[in-house]
Task: structure prediction
Amino acid sequence: MFLKHLDLTTALRPLYLPDEVLLFVQDNVGLYEGKYKLPNQQNGQVYLTSHRVCYVDKIEPRKYSAALDLKEVDRYEFYAGFFKSSAKVTIVPKPLRRSALHNRVMSGTGVNSRHSTPSPTSSNDAYAPPTGPPPAAATWVCNICSFSNPVPSNFDPAAANAHTPLPPCLACGIKPALSLVLKAAISSASRPSPSPNPSQPGNINNYTFSSASAVTLGLVDPFATPGEQRKSDTAIAFQCPRCTFSNHPSLLSCEMCGAPLLSQDAPPTISTAEYIRILSQSPGPIKDTSQGAVDFAESVKISFRGGGEKIFYERLKSAMTQRKWLLQDAPPAPKSSRMADDNSSSGSPGTPTQRTKTAGIAGLEQLGLNMRKNNEILIGSAFEDLEALMTSAKEVVALAERFAQQVNGASADVTSKENTILAESAHQLGLITTKDIVGSGGGSDSLYFSELARNLAEFLTDDARGVLKRAGGILTLVDLWAMFNRARGGVELVSPMDFEKAAQMWEALKLPVRLRTFRSGVMVVQARDRTDDATIRSILAWLQDLHEFPPDREVAWDWREFGRGVTAQDTAERFCWSLGVAEEELLMAEEQGVLCREEGLEGLKFWKNYIGKTDIAVLQKREAQEEADAILRRLKDTGLI
Amino acid sequence: MATTTASEPFPFPREYFFPAFFTRQPNLTIHHAQLTKWSSLVLAYARHHRIFRLALSAAADSDLFYNRQLDRRLAPPDIREVVDFMRKDGRAEYLQPGDAGAGSSGSNSNGDASTASTAASAGAGAGDVVLIYWRKPQEWAALIEAYVDETAQKGSVLTVYELTEGENTRGTEFHGMDNGVLMKALNILVKRGKAQIFGSEDSLGVKFF
Result:
């Protein structure tokens, strides 16, 4: 299936692949598959990254979110919208292997249309060949007579071996070598250009089909309406697109020339009830999931109901041109010519062939020298111009990080080490939400804030970083703000205002962190599961422990009975909280009546509440018990019992 | 500081040894509980030592409000708050300046009972002395009435001195009672028509019906 399931982070954002860069976000979008709306994916956000297009559903993100890989995208189109029909970007997948065969055997596949509104494009134009099977498009040139023969449709380059039967040349009848056909098949499959050349003899051109058979390609029929039953000339013989021989409809390939034939399945019908349901919202039918055509490569449309389609289209275009997914495992870019010149002209022992020969201290020195030289070359070439910098960005960043580590290692400062950890994890700069990757439109600001909120939540809950964990599960907003901006490495800093607004959206977005405001107005960040009750419980457990362990010095009171008073400082140390947080938590616990305070020369101390209400109840119970005892005793004395 | 009829020391409650008990609690619920406990402590302490009047400035340094063992004390404003709380409960009353003069003169003339407290009250300014009702005046009145009834002295005339210091009342609860409190109790009986007070300042007489 073209749309794949999408893994989400804790903050309900797509989980990014290594080196993936976020390019654009837009909310209020819906998905179409082919012509039909996907009923569960009508309100969400679309994330355009360098590798994927991700859809995250708003209502049930874990269930209905989907993604499609850009590397599987064949082409994409832009539709500007018309009356009630919103602007859309259509993404057409690369054709699946043997899709033609599938088309033949499977009934009930959907009808594809590029747009939901009929457009007056010519049929020639509409019959672009995205689903034309690649084996059919491949040709091999006969060694003997140089005739261009088609590679057989059932020829699989991956599975082919010496025993695979190969058809002879159509002109001279000589069997080709396996390597020849193999080469032809592979070269045609890896050919990036999707558009076929009509002059190519081996290619099937769809426009030679009758309009009925074009529909069955699972492609486009601009005049088709889904309700129409189409049976123009299904009964008659199937005409070969290449040699025009009339074949029997059940044949897979032309009897005369061997060209693959395509099916004539009738398009499915759509019930009127479904229509009524859809029409209430926005134009365009909804895809009926009961139809079994799941693995059918259909185009996906993204409907932009809140604007942003133009930027999305532009960014998609640039992402498709850059094709970053190819770089994922690619070796580093070839060294610049200057470096090669340097190496050759100097003729020093730093050339790779000689490096292996040296050993011992001299070898180590040589190694160091080489590394420095390489660094120098890298930096020199990278900063030659902006273009060069862009291409070698990855290496330069790695180099800079290594330098930073060395510097920090020398100073051996604890805080700087902490910063390094943060900076290290911040090298996933692509994950950062900035204002310009968020789509414009009516509610662009709120989209920015919600993205920032998700970003923050991810930052907080990231296990590798453990920001929240190290702060004892609670952190003041100011501290977080400082940490977050530092982690961004000094670029694209977030203003305090935006930060606060984003933090306030956590609740609404159902993220795993929450913002809490203490009575004094101090705002803190906490994990969602960390409630006041949990905090109080942990404080009480701690105070209870103090009954068991004798205090550091002699105390006047009975510590076995009352334990000891704790200051905010003690609490901060005990729970790894910041001092302000500890104070606020203690005050909160006091407000709940769990703690009581003692103001003395040593400052404000908090005790477990031995004054409070629960104690009174105990006291009254005891009094009642005593009274009952006294009555009993008196009764005994008088001899009644 | 007060006349101690019982020789054994006052058994302080558990909270008295809890350091936080001496700090005013900002939480309303805890504060209320704290006031309740302080109030019962003051009453129990007064009953134990048969204190009828408490001079607040002097009492702040007494065992009652100052735990020397813990080195914690209840601050004067907090003491006043406790007294106010008791007053609302009908368990304490500030001695009015005029009243105080009458009371102190009466007790001075009446003998050596509760000299310490009266001396303290005489020395302190107005509003400093508090009558502690570990028995309310109504309860005192009932006690006196019961005594008169028991000893068949209805219709006879007793002096106030006889009631508090006389040989006959020895062993009753109100023996050695503070004059001010006694007058309040007797006045209640007068209002009910059970007694009549007559005589001059120094030699008051009461007739019971």
About this structure: The first strand of chain A starts at residue 4 and ends at 5. The interface with chain B takes residues 556-558, 561-562, 565, 590-591, 593, 596-600, 605, 607, 609-613, 615-616 of chain A (CB under 8 Å).
